[in-house]
Structure formats: C-alpha cells, structure tokens
C-alpha cells in the first residue's frame, strides 16, 4: 500500500507495517450505502417480498420493484432523523412531513413494511435459527470483511434492542439496551465494522480449529478476516479472554490484548496470604503494573462502543412484531455508519473538510 506508516504505541507491540490505502476519489454519499445494499441484494429482497405477499394472499400482488424499495428505505432513514411517536403521523394533516408523505401514500408504505421479507418460507432451514435473515447476513458480511483494516481492532458485544418474544433474545444488564439480540462485532477504533457474528447459541470453532469455549470460538471466527495480515493488534474484554485463546491467536500470527478473569489464568493465580505464610519468612509476591499496556487497551478497546454511539444518534425505531424486521433495520443502521465512516476516510485522505 502507498504511504505506509510505521509506529508502535507500547513496548513489545509489533511495529505497524501496513496502511489503509488512500482514496483517489470521493463518491456521492448514497453510493457508499449502495456498495453494501447493492442491486443484487435489493432485487433479492424485492423478489422475496413479492413472493411472501403471494403466499399470504394468492389473490393479491405486491408488485414491489427496486426503485420503490429504495424509496421505502429512504423514508425509513428520514424517519430516524425526524422522529415522531408513530409512523402514521408523517402523513397526518397536523404534522405532515413532505419528505416522507410525498414519496408514497401511507397505505402503500405500510403494505411494503408488512410484506418486507428476506427468505423463502417454502424452503425453511429448520437447523438454522437465523434462517429468516441468512440471505441478508450472507450478502453484507463478505462486503464488510473486504474493507481495508487499520492496525487497531477490537471485538465486543452489541445489542439490537427488541422487546418482543424470541428464543434468540438475550439480557445483558450492563448494556444501554439490556434486552434484545446479541451480535459480536469486529470494529476499528472509529466504529467501522469489519465482521460480525449474530448470536444464535454456542458458537462452534472455525474449521480446523480446536474448541476453546464459546467466547474464544467467537474471537477465532471473527479474527479469520485478519489471519496472515500485517501485524494487526486485536483487543477484547475479559468475557472473551483465556490463555487458550491467546495461544490460538499467537499461532495464527495475531497479537492480542485483553483483560482477563482470575478464574481463567489456568495456574497463573497469585498466591493467597495464607499460602505465603506457609512458605516461611521473607516470601513475597510483587505485582508489576504494565502501564503502557493498560494505556493501550483503554485507548483502543472502544470500537464497538463508538459504533453503538453513532447508531444511537439516528437509530431506526420502526415498530414491528417480526424479529427479522428488527434485524433488517439494524443492519441498515450499521451500513449507514460504515458508509459515513468510509466517506469521511476518503475525505480525509484527499484533505476535503
């Protein structure tokens, strides 16, 4: 890559030998969105939505096309910026919002929302809990993974807020949204998504890897995107950390840094006071603070938190009882953030304010 940067932020941290390639052009903002929600994905959603409508009522055709689907997504994004308590208010006489109401009639908007579908119900995969959103995942994930990565990357949990009933719903008390669906995300420090894994039960290890536990398997799965790359440094918290994980990552050439729970030190626990007394007078243990490493972790661990903060500014709040709708709108939010960050990256590389 051009303009290679060499830097090291702490002792024993590999010197960065790579660089995100500079851009020689800046696309229109909507084109950054379309590189993820491309024509192929939009056509798939159109076809599945039309099929779902026919399955529900053979005497009625949705006749949705790609242009109208793009208009629907555009109105949804505008609603996330100009928020009103209920979607119908955008068409009301008292609070009419022309950027929404002039695009399509209210009844048509609600019809598209009702029949919005991502997979074929006539060919279900009962072994896949994410069957309803699998085509969306399979389309977006390779595009995220193909993005050039910066040096510092982090893995953390992200919550997709959902209050309805679902076997996939999780409860994490320390998250801003405590109830919803859990997604494990690989981000850079600004929140740019490079990979993700939707939680649907215990994660199996990647092919050819030993099982090192549910949390460790998630890291190995997400880290596949940087295996064999140029000295990335991977950060994660104590839910993921274990000695087996650090060894597995080291064997793949991936340096990693994370906090760790005492019950995962596997023989590396500090001696208790009673045990020290039994060893006789003069026995002591000294804990050495590794200040550089702590500073490095605190500085670069928050990539997923940055992503959450950016999504929270204009999160899509369209109500639906269908869980796959919640995922669809969340991934639209994620794509908007990725598109905006890529746009800013290109602007910075060309010194455009």
Automatic annotation (TrEMBL):
Pfam families: DDE_Tnp_1_7
Limits of the PiggyBac transposable element-derived protein domain: 29-284, 289-340
Domain of life: Eukaryota
PANTHER family per UniProt: DDE_TNP_1_7 DOMAIN-CONTAINING PROTEIN (PTHR47272), PIGGYBAC TRANSPOSABLE ELEMENT-DERIVED PROTEIN 3-LIKE (PTHR47272:SF1)
Protein's name according to its UniProt entry: PiggyBac transposable element-derived protein domain-containing protein
Organism (species): Paramormyrops kingsleyae
């Amino acid at each position: 890559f051009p303009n290679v940067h060499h830097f090291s932020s702490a002792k024993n941290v590999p010197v960065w030998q790579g660089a995100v390639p500079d851009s020689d052009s800046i696309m229109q903002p909507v084109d950054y969105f379309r590189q993820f929600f491309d024509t192929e994905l939009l056509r798939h959603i159109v076809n599945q939505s039309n099929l779902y409508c026919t399955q529900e009522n053979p005497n009625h055709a949705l006749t949705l096309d790609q242009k109208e689907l793009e208009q629907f997504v555009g109105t949804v994004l505008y609603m996330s910026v100009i928020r009103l308590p209920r979607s119908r208010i955008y068409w009301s006489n008292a609070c009419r919002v022309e950027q929404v109401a002039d695009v399509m009639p209210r009844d048509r908007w609600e019809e598209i929302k009702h029949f919005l579908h991502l997979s074929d119900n006539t060919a279900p995969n009962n072994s896949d809990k994410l069957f309803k959103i699998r085509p969306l995942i399979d389309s977006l994930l390779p595009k995220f993974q193909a993005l050039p990565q910066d040096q510092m990357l982090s893995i953390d949990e992200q919550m997709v807020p959902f209050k309805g009933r679902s076997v996939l719903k999780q409860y994490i008390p320390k998250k801003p949204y405590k109830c919803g669906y859990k997604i494990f995300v690989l981000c850079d420090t600004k929140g740019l998504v490079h990979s993700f894994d939707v939680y649907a039960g215990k994660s199996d290890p990647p092919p050819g890897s030993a099982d090192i536990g549910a949390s460790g398997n998630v890291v190995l799965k997400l880290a596949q995107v940087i295996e064999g790359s140029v000295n990335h440094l991977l950060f994660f918290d104590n839910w993921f950390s274990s000695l087996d994980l650090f060894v597995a990552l080291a064997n793949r050439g991936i340096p990693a840094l994370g906090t760790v729970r005492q019950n995962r030190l596997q023989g590396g626990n500090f001696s208790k006071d009673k045990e020290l007394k039994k060893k006789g007078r003069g026995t002591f243990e000294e804990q050495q603070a590794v200040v550089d490493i702590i500073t490095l972790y605190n500085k670069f661990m928050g990539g997923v938190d940055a992503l959450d903060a950016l999504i929270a500014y204009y999160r899509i709040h369209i109500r639906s009882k269908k869980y796959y709708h919640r995922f669809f709108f969340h991934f639209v939010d994620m794509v908007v953030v990725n598109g905006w960050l890529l746009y800013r990256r290109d602007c910075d590389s060309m010194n455009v304010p």
